[in-house]
Write a structure and sequence with these properties.
HopO1-2, 59 residues
Length: 59
C-alpha cells in the first residue's frame, strides 16, 4: 500500500508563495506608476492636438 500524498502544499510553502506574490504585485504596481508618470491626461492631449491642427489649417 502506498502512503497517501498530502492534500496540498505545506502551510510554510503556502505562506512563502503568498508573500512572493504580494511582493511581485507591489513591484508591478510601482513599475506601472513610473511607466505612465509622464503621460498627459486625455483632455490635455486632445486640446494640444486640436491646437496643433488649428495651427496648420491645410493639413
Amino acid at each position: 500500500m502506498r502512503p497517501s500524498l498530502p492534500k496540498g502544499p505545506s502551510p510554510r510553502l503556502s505562506q512563502a508563495l503568498s508573500s512572493m506574490i504580494v511582493q511581485g504585485v507591489k513591484w508591478l504596481k510601482s513599475q506601472l506608476k513610473s511607466l505612465f508618470s509622464d503621460v498627459e491626461p486625455p483632455n490635455s492631449m486632445i486640446k494640444k492636438a486640436l491646437g496643433e491642427k488649428d495651427g496648420h489649417p491645410f493639413v
